[in-house]
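Researcher: Next sequence.
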Amino acid sequence: MTMAYIPGFKHDIFISYAHVDNAKNPGEKMGWVETFCQYLEVELSKKVGRSDLVDIWWDSTDLDPGQQFDTKIADGVHESAIFLALYSNGYQASRYCLENELTPFFEKADSDAYGIVVGDNRRRIYHMLLADINYNEWPDAFDGGSGFPFFDGGSPQDASIPGSEEFRGQIRKLANSLHLFLDEFKEVADKGSGSAGAPAPKDPTPAGPDQQTVFIGDVPESLGKTARKLINDLERENISIIHRIPPPYPSEQHDEKVKELVETCSLSVHLLDAYPGRTMDDDPTNTYRQRQIEIIKEASLSQIIWVPKQVDIEGGVDDENYQAFLKDLMKGQREAEEVYEFVRILPTNLKSHVLDKLTKLKEEQQKEENAPAEGEQAGVLVVTHQKDQLHAFNVGSLLVKHHMQPYINPSEDDPTANFSELKARLDKVTMLMVLYGQVAEGWVRQWLGEILKLQMTSGLAIQEYCVINVPPEKEAVNFDFGPIPVNLIDLNKGEQDLVAVLDRVRGAA
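Model: Next structure:
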């Protein structure tokens, strides 16, 4: 069973359509539905960073559904997390689509562990309007959804023209929504248990891959306003916060709770004043504030320990033990012995300081995660403009066929516009391909130049640089950058030259 992006499912997305909508006009190589599926797959690959993470199921046969295909389609419906209906006049007239695909999915989703609505009030049934059909004629399963228009603005009873600016804009809007929903659904499923990922009770810590969690230590009353502002500011930045510990108050239970919670955190923040704080109920020699810092130091979790500038540690702290504790923290910071920062910045700068620290921690984590595992397939970054994304899909398929792992560049014209995401993907690859199709020569050179700069400054592991000529045909251009050769491979003349380069790179991996 292949793994979907959402745990517990074989497929992330099931695409339901009427076969009449995929009929080819004379001279066409692909029907409307097949083109839609390829554009959507490429756009989602850009969102998640890889071409094989999101599993999309659609019946690509040219035969009418029925007989031997009924079981296959029923399995696809049952094993999918999200349902996309390409709603058209043909779909509306198809009893098969309505009774064998849409209705079974609705009934299955409505009764399974997640329900028909998941995450931020998102429905698991999406419907694309290939014609401007009055909502009063929509099936009951579409209730609660507004639908995504995919009809021609100038001819509302006709589907958008594949490849047009209008069509690509509609695809991007749909892919953005699906990407958000896939991540939300994954968060819920990651917390679940059972064969279909039955959701567990709500956990205070995040499960999402992009959300970080901060533990806020026991806060002195004098700094309550500062703490509340920091928490509100961080939550507005999509940072999950764990705070208000204690309770529990007994030292053993308190310590176990803190240890359990910090395992899920990226960072802890402790606000201290001139007073040691509440003593522990059954350990009057210790305070909750100090104990939490010590537990987190033992756990080697990054900490920010903040003391306001107006606190005079030498002359304004009456408790000798607490004064010694603060001095030890300063000494450990100076001698770089500990994984914490002891800061005396203005309270107005706390938010930016914490966010900067979280950014650095996330970059370090991504660098570790992106390090290639022993025996991992050689990675290839495919840089493509939206105009050439169908060619990128074909190149990605060729890479997979030759046991290479394709990655898709961030969806930006400017390589510096989403630098951290681009850098993370470059860290995973040993080969770069820039598609030279319906773009200017300068666009190709800009991408090559920026990535070559990174190669020199960041020690990338790229062994092979290629520019891939894809339709339309054009004259050969020398893209070499000084001593670094750039292979120009013309796919208009066949795949053999590219295959030879892939074999060489794979052999060296």
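Model: Residues 193-207 have pLDDT under 50 and may be disordered. The two ends are 28 Å apart (CA to CA).
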